[in-house]
Design goal:
Blueprint: E1 5-8, E2 13-17, E3 20-24, E4 27-30, H1 38-42, H2 44-68, H3 71-79, H4 81-85, H5 88-109, H6 112-115, H7 118-143, H8 150-155, H9 159-174, H10 180-193, H11 208-214, H12 221-226, H13 241-248, H14 251-259, H15 274-280, H16 284-288
Antiparallel strand pairs: 1-4, 2-3
Keywords: ANK repeat, Repeat
Pfam families: Ank_2 (PF12796)
ANK repeats: 237-269
C-alpha cells in the first residue's frame, strides 16, 4: 500500500554466501494497512516519540522518588547536615525534573516534518534512551561526593554536561595504571555509555570491535580492548577487524588495531591479507601504511 516503509531493526551483519560477502540488514515491513492519510502517517513518528518520551519522564520520576527514599541517600544526608537543613537535596531533584520537562517541551514544539528527517529522529531517540542514565548520573555525582553544598552547585549544572564529564573520567581512569579488573570494569562502563557494549552479545550482532571499526571510530578501539574485546576476533569468512578496516580504507582504525596487537600478515579464508583488501578497494593511504 502507499506510504508503507521499511524499518531497520538491528545492526547490519556480514555473512558469507556462495563464496561472497553479503551484508545482512534485518528489516521490518511497516505496511499502511489502515490506509492512513498522508498527514496521519507523517505525524506518526512524532506521536510515537512523544509517547516514548512521556513514559521515560514518568519512569525517571518514579526512580527519583525511590532513590530519595533509599538507604544510600539517607547515609549521604547524615554526612551533609547543612544540605538537609537548606533542602539542597530537594532542589537537586527538582532541577532534574525541570530539566526533563524542558526537554519534553523542546521536542513537543518541533514540527512533524522535523521527525521525518532520519538524522533528526536518530538524534532524538539517542537522547531519549540516554535520558534516564543522565538523570541518575546527576544524582550519583552528589552521592559519590563529599562535603556540604554540592547539591547547590550540581543543581545549576546540566545533566548532559555532567554525563560528558563522567564519560571523560571513565576514559581517563580506565586507561590509567589501575588494576586489570578495575580497568576492565571501567572500560566496560564507558563502552556501555557509548552504546557499543551490552555484556552478553547477541549472536546475530557483530562484536563491539567490529561495530567500532565499521563506523570508523578508531578512538573507541583502545577502550573496547581494555574492556575485553580482541583484535584477533574473526567473522565467518575469516576477516579480522584489520581486514574490515583495510577494506573500507580506515587508516586510523588500522593503526589503532596494529597498536593493540593485530597482525598485518593474517589471512582470511580466501587467503587475503589486509594489504590485498586495501589494494582491491583502491585505498592508497591504507595500503601505504
Amino acid at each position: 500500500p502507499p506510504l508503507s516503509y521499511l524499518e531497520v531493526m538491528k545492526q547490519p551483519r556480514v555473512e558469507e554466501t556462495d563464496g561472497m560477502l553479503v551484508r545482512v540488514v534485518p528489516l521490518k515491513i511497516n505496511a499502511n494497512l489502515t490506509c492512513s492519510t498522508i498527514e496521519e502517517t507523517l505525524g506518526k513518528r512524532k506521536q510515537l516519540f512523544m509517547a516514548l518520551l512521556k513514559n521515560v519522564e514518568e519512569e525517571i520520576g518514579r526512580d527519583l522518588e525511590d532513590m530519595m527514599q533509599s538507604q544510600r541517600v539517607k547515609d549521604r544526608m547524615a554526612d551533609t547536615p547543612l544540605d538537609v537543613i537548606m533542602n539542597n537535596h530537594h532542589d537537586l531533584r527538582a532541577s532534574i525534573v525541570e530539566e526533563i520537562k524542558e526537554i519534553v517541551r523542546r521536542y513537543k514544539k518541533r514540527g512533524e516534518a522535523w521527525y521525518n528527517v532520519d538524522e533528526n529522529y536518530v538524534q532524538a531517540m539517542g537522547e531519549a534512551t540516554r535520558l534516564k542514565e543522565m538523570a541518575m548520573n546527576k544524582i550519583n555525582f552528589w552521592l559519590d561526593g563529599t562535603g556540604d553544598f554540592q547539591c547547590e552547585a550540581l543543581a545549576a549544572q546540566k545533566m548532559k554536561d555532567l554525563y560528558m564529564t563522567k564519560i571523560s573520567d571513565l576514559h581517563r581512569r580506565a586507561l590509567s595504571d589501575t588494576g586489570d579488573q578495575d580497568g576492565q570494569r571501567l572500560a566496560e562502563q564507558f563502552c556501555k555509555m557509548q552504546g557499543i557494549w551490552g555484556g552478553e552479545q547477541d549472536s546475530e550482532l557483530e562484536s563491539p570491535i567490529f561495530t567500532a571499526v565499521r563506523q570508523g571510530q578508531a578512538d573507541l578501539i583502545p577502550m573496547i580492548c581494555r574492556a575485553g574485546g580482541k583484535v584477533t576476533e574473526t567473522l565467518s569468512n575469516g576477516d579480522t577487524p584489520l581486514h574490515v578496516a583495510a577494506r573500507q580504507g580506515y587508516k586510523l582504525c588500522m593503526q589503532m588495531l596494529v597498536k593493540h596487537g593485530a597482525n598485518v600478515s593474517t589471512r582470511n579464508k580466501d587467503g587475503r591479507t589486509c594489504a590485498h583488501l586495501a589494494c582491491a578497494g583502491g585505498h592508497v593511504e591504507a595500503l601505504k601504511y
